Every structure is written in structure tokens, then in C-alpha cells.
Fold this protein.
Amino acid sequence: QSVLPQPPSASGTPGQSVTISCSGSNSNIGKNYVYWYQQFPGTAPKLLIYRESLRPSGVPDRFSGSKSGTSATLAISGLRSEDEASYFCASWDDSLTGSVVFGGGTKLTVL
Amino acid sequence: QVQLVQSGTEVKKSGASVKISCKTSGYDFIRYFIHWVRQAPGQGLEWMGRIDPSRGTTISAQNFQGRLTMTKDTSTTTVYMDLSSLTPDDTAIYYCARDALSSAPKLSYFDFWGLGSLVAVSS
């Protein structure tokens, strides 16, 4: 059971918009930044969104992030076939000795 | 360009230890923390800990305290992760990743990743 539950799967057709949720608590998302990573099969994760809504250089503006309370959302607009990947949220958790915590990941399928 | 090159596949028996290397290049080695993150087959990501290469200080996730050791060699700009008392549950791909900000732990996030090192543990 992940500390940050995410839906295991999501899907959409090309051109559509999809959202992926990430649920947390006051010890993590509620008090700390949220980050999103994209991972293609057999490859290392890649930073997609940092500090909830900022995009690293090279990440298309079709990807956006937001946070409300103890939940965060990744939105992808104008879905493209190359967006088919797994998406992980992450945050810092202040519980116990503190740690980076990840969501369980959402596998996005472009139909 | 920033690169993190990891060592190869390791096959171990339960109870053994494994040591993985992460050779960095393309940036000032001592300025950026290096984290270790693992991913069991078909599973999500799990943070293990991080090392500050400038001082060699480390912080570890509670799940790994006592059997995770992270070290660095400044002369070769390489970071090492040593995990002891292995069990089959430790079978995973182990990634090293650079901390983009390298400041307070709660601001940790990862801008560059190694390709991963597969560790397979049999009983």
C-alpha cells in the first residue's frame, strides 16, 4: 500500500485531456511540495513537474500540475501516443524520521 | 552533460550484501546530493536514502536503517550504495538520482537519474 495512493490506470484517446490524482495527508502533500515523474517501460523515471506546477526545460506545456489541500493532480491536455507511460507523484513525508514518499504509479494508456 | 553511470546486474543469495556504484560526470560532484531509489519488478518507486558528497553525511529511510550504507569517492566522483542482509524482497532495480536543489531534505527532487542496476536475490 503506497503512502500516496494513485489510480493504477488511466486512459484517453489522442487529443483528449486526462487527469491523474495523488492522494496524501497532512504529513506529506498537505505541508510539502509535490513532484511528478514520468517513466517509460524499461527506462529510468524522468522529472516532469516540480514544486507542484513547474515544468523543467523541455517538458511540453500540455503537462500541468496542481495541488489542493492534501491532494495533487497531474493534467495532460492534447493527449498524444507518446504520453503512454507510468506517472508517479512524490513528496516529502514528515512522519517518523522523514522520507521521500512516492505514489504507487498510474499507467496511462492512449487508446 | 550530466551523466550518472551505474554498475551492472548483481545476482545474490539471501543473507549476502550488494554494493552498487554510481559514477557521476558533467557537473561539480560535491555540490549535489545523490539519492538511491529502488523499484521492485512491476512495482512503484521506493526512496532509500541520500548522501551529501561534500561531507559524506547520509540520511536513510527508516525501512533501511541498519543495513544501508552510502559512501563516496571524491577522486573518482563516484557514489556507492551497500545493502546488507539481502532477502528476495530486495530484488529490484536500484537507481541513483541527483538532487536538483541539494538543500533541505524536504525539498528533495531528482533531475538526473542513472539507468538503474538490477539486483536479483534468491533464497
User: Anything to note?
Assistant: Residues 1 and 104 of chain A are 8 Å apart (CA to CA). The mean pLDDT of chain A is 95.
